[in-house]
Task: structure prediction
Amino acid sequence: MQKGIIIKGISGFYYVKIEEGKIIECKARGKFRNNNITPIVGDRVFIELIEEDKGIIKEIIPRKNLLIRPLVANIDQAVVVFACKKPDIIFTLLDKILIQIESYNIKAIICINKSDLDDNNMFDKVKSIYEKAGYTVIKTNALKNEGIDDLKSLLKDKISVFAGPSGVGKSTIFNKIQNKIKMETQDISSKVKRGRHTTRHAELIDIDNNTFIADTPGFSNLDISFIEPKNLQYMFLEFKDYIGKCKFTSCMHFKETGCAVKEAAHNGLISIERYNAYIEILEEIQNNRRKR
Ligand SMILES: Nc1nc2c(ncn2[C@@H]2O[C@H](COP(=O)(O)OP(=O)(O)OP(=O)(O)O)[C@@H](O)[C@H]2O)c(=O)[nH]1
Ligand SMILES: [Mg+2]
Ligand SMILES: [Zn+2]
Result:
């Protein structure tokens, strides 16, 4: 038996990269289907070789998480990309993307691209708010290859997906960190005219034997109303130290008295921007639920 990872699946065949680096074309053993488990990209598996480059998947190692769009298992981290400018950073959108990533129990890192356009010090602003929240924040200029090595070192030995709004430079970055596939890059105006192309099958691109990136941007669906209002607090990582210290155990950290989270925000221990984002998103989720 050989251990490997499924990097691609096409009509019943799975392409498994085994530890020594070879790619083996595999069929799945019938038993998975009976158990309602279908192997998917990202699955870590044990295979039995039947020929030099053909095999059978015998066992799927339990998944640590499962992302639906794109369909990928075992994601270690999401790289959330925004640009200093063109388009401007929408902080609520950044917070919502982070919430969605936290809800999947995936680690997020924040990459601020287009540093050549940073005349308003947006990188410093993002860094000061989100580093305090526990995130790693890096800057890149994908056109000039600046910061790309720093990003690459953060990807090492992990499976990563990219997320972020259209036009921030995800595909441009993607093309700088690997040269196996070439993603289409373009400015927003020409894209709108041409209509959008979406990849349905996820594929992992190997940067080295143990480092993979998913070829489609994840977290495109930003409806976060599936989150229960009372669970939203846990998606703000920096609240963790204060939750439970409030006067009321059911505290939503909003209008209650004796709230440790609110106090921390007012004392600057939690960024006031993040606390305000929490309130804004909490009210939005509550309002959406009332409408249903
Ligand atoms: N000035 C500047 N422009 C950049 C940089 N990185 C990418 N761009 C440009 O930004 C535009 C959009 O880049 P893409 O890589 O297509 O953006 P994307 O995030 O993949 O967009 P979607 O595929 O629509 O989600 C292109 O015209 C790029 O050349 C950068 O660091 N600085
Ligand atoms: Mg793109
Ligand atoms: Zn509270």
